[in-house]
Amino acid sequence: MVPPRFLIARNPEGESSLPFLIRIPIGSAGLVLRARETWPRTAKVFCFRAGDPWPEVPDLVDDVPVKLCERRGVAIDLVLDRRRENRSQFVFTRLKGGREAIFWQTSRTAAKSRPGVRLPGRRASFLKDMTIQVDTRERYPYRFTNQKTSTVRGSLPVGDYGASLEDQLVAIVERKSLPDLVKGLSDGSLAFQMAELLSFPRAAVVVEERYSTLFKNQYLPGGVLSDLLARIQVRYPSVPIVFCETRPLAEEWTFRFLGAALATLIDQPDDPTEAKRWLD
Fold first, then answer.
1. Tens digits of residue pLDDT in 200-251
2. Are 40 and 107 within one domain?
3. Pair 137, 273 in one domain
4. Is residue 85 located within the same domain as residue 202?
5. Range of 169's domain?
6. How many other β-carbons are positioned within 10 Å of the β-carbon of residue 259?
7. Out of 27, 197, 239, 254, which residue is the most buried by the measure of CB atoms under 10 Å away?
8. How far is the C-alpha of 229 from the C-alpha of 231, rounded, in Å?
9. Are residues 156 and 162 in contact, defined by beta-carbon separation less than 8 angstroms?
10. What's the rounded Cα separation, in Å, for the pair 64 and 240?
């Protein structure tokens, strides 16, 4: 089977301020956009839907096989079959007045558009020995390189990151992007995940986005999504859903939550020497 291809061509309208056409291989005919750049290298690239179909004889600039092209809520995730400049995302939103806007971004350019925060380097809850378990299904996991912890890959029954005490899994964090959260709310799958998370002493869901982005969804009114989210939280109050506006902040919060869960469970152990082994 021939893999789909991601195509970039020069816009036949030479005077256009958007000199490139992009064809995303999604749907039967593909989605054709106009763009100013051929890749979001330094900032998000603002795109518009092309009024005309893809040219019969395009003046190609780039032609790359595609490993993944999938629509998830308000975004299209694109993974190209090449080593560099291979992962990006097209996010669909609405401007004031209702006009559609499409932003082409990478994780780097998305982070640049948000305020920078210097993350602390101190240990989590003063733990001197902490290992975070990372589920094997996580394709691009947190590495916790800025935190004082180690990681080990393994299969978790639920969630993406966990912490164990005496070989027993005691804390779990489920990581979600905004499209994952929207999908889970709209199709009801999030409720089943929350029920599974309840089986652990400490569990939480961390979302790599601002809460305000729920109100910018193109397909479901923001009031509907926020209401579904509120109902989920009322139904499962012991599993918090926390919004962290960037991936690094979500990674930091995950580290702190797991550390605090461990520290809480060993604050009053049966053997007092056990706490000294874990705490400074």
1. 889 999 999 889 888 877 667 667 889 999 999 999 999 999 999 888 899 9
2. yes
3. yes
4. no
5. 124-278
6. 22
7. 254
8. 5
9. yes
10. 41
